[in-house]
Amino acid sequence: MSKVKAGGSSKNVHDSPGQRLGVKLFGGQKVKTGQVIVRQTGMTKRPGDGTFISRNFTIHAAKDGIVKFSQRKVRLFSGKSVRRTEVTVE
Questions:
Q1: In terms of CB atoms within 10 Å, which end of the chain has fewer, N or C?
Q2: Between residues 23 and 9, which one has the greater pLDDT?
Q3: What's the total number of domains in the chain?
């Protein structure tokens, strides 16, 4: 007969570093072609004129200019309209 309970494998012990997500350049700041404006998971912010989005949803500047953030309405798959932030370079 055992005197101790069975020792199971421990979970939630792996620690990974943060991904450094977020807004890197704010509205009104100068930007050069190819610079990262926003690093994000999913499309929380949408690319607008003068920007492009990469495979990991990072928004980059497509031309030199000044960063601008604005709100726009986006229609979801369900038909509901919601406000989302649009990033543009002027």
A1: N
A2: 23
A3: 1
